[in-house]
Amino acid sequence: MPRDTADLLVEPVETTEADLASIRPQAAYSTTEPDDFRSLEAGLDRLQTDPDRAPSAWKRFTTSVLPPIVFVVALLVAWQLYIVIAQPRPDLAPSPLDVVTAIGQAWESGRLQLAVTTSLERGVLGFLVAVVVGTPLGLLLAEVKPLRRAIGPIISGLQVLPSVAWVPAAIIWFGLTDATVYFVVLMGAVPSIVNGLIAGVDQVPPQLRRVGTVLGAGPGRLAALVVLPAALPGYVAGLKQGWAFSWRSLMAAEIIATGGTIGFGVGSMLDQSRELADLAGVLATILLILAIGILIELAFFAPLERRMLRRRGLLQAGAK
Amino acid sequence: MSGQTAIRIEQLGKRFGAGPLVLDDVNLSIEAGEFVCLLGASGCGKSTLLNLIAGLDRPTTGSIDVPAEGAAVMFQESALMPWLTARQNVELALRLRGVPRAARRGEALELLDTVNLADAAEKRPHELSGGMRQRVALARALAQDRPVLLMDEPFAALDAITRDLLHEELERVWRRTGRTIVFVTHNVREAARLGQRVVLLSSRPGRVAGEWRIAETTGRRIESPEVAALSIEITEQLRKEIRRNAA
Known about the structure:
A: mainly alpha; MetI-like fold; B: alpha/beta; 6-stranded mixed β-sheet; 3-stranded antiparallel β-sheet
């Protein structure tokens, strides 16, 4: 189809301008055949692009999985060696084996499973509520300038305020109930999500908005089809930080506020071990809290972020 | 070509706020299907004029008549959405035009084929070269299906070889689609190579300072002697206009 039209267009040159073409030498080479042009352009395209090579599974294993494992194993070995060589008081410096035993005991008694499910459920639920609250709030603040001038600094300030500070107030308001825990989690996570979204929207290149307008998008579709997707990297960074704040706030709330109708979470387990002066148990719980944080990051946020950045060409293959 | 006026600009003036006049008494009438190059040094208000034609800005005085369907615009930077593939970028324009979902994919692929990018349809902007990105942007502008295509120095950031090829590509697309094209550039050779008409704008304020019509537009190349001859003539006039600013 394109060939036909192109041929038709070339025709008048050959018929009506035949003598002219013979006079001007450039006319002979200037009308490149369509197929010629296609191959010429395809050749240049090939020269100017590099195939995007995804790193091999083995390379990814050796560059990103192996180093932290090696480090942790080295740490454990050093710890065990210290115990064996220096022989400190076991109640002040338990060995890695003691900690593993403590974890095993907690598992057998069912406390570990109960604590992890309770805390994860609260953490995830609290985080999701924070997303639902923070996203529209962030969009509103990013797009409505007067509102942002009024509320923006306070939200930024709230991000700096340690959310543990809300625990006493929450206990007075809500008593020792789940509401206290959720309140503290929300106060920790919402400002991060809001700030992440605002930063993301601020970094949307103005020409993308302009293109959206030129293509005929009204304010609603501009936000949905251009601004929000363009702000996604900042938003995901905000979500990631929001999760971190949720988890930290949750632990703080669980450690401080125990009893009442508040269930048994990982924080409560930590506090219980402290009361029993069970250092192995305390260390085991700390490791557990750390492991859950790392696991959520590795299983959920890291792949999400990597996929998004790679799609946008913001991540060099092989880097990170 | 058809002899119908597509864009009529009469006694157009533009100033921003209380600033100096950017455009002063610009009169220009562009026929449907015509390829017009707006040429000028920095500060001649050629981008301002383009924005006015595109309806992104309003004139201070005078009037602009453009087709009711409006104009498609292509910028110096391709401004493709980085999270969408080449095909999806074109589909976005189709979607905003109101093309039903089922028809979008096929039409987008067809448009990408007109710019020789059918094979790169599933690539994302960062995997494409600068020239390929501008071709996707061209396909996207064509997807808007407006009779007028406005181009604001679309090839300024490209290397000479790529630009040369894109000139040929654009000429092909113009002949095939019969679009009215207004092409803004500060590159004299580019204007002499592409335009059916070259309109020279003076600087501060921008006025029409000269106009050339090219009778024979087929078979031109950037290195053609007639393009070179015209470039020399236009450059002379352009330098005269620039020199007037020294006084």
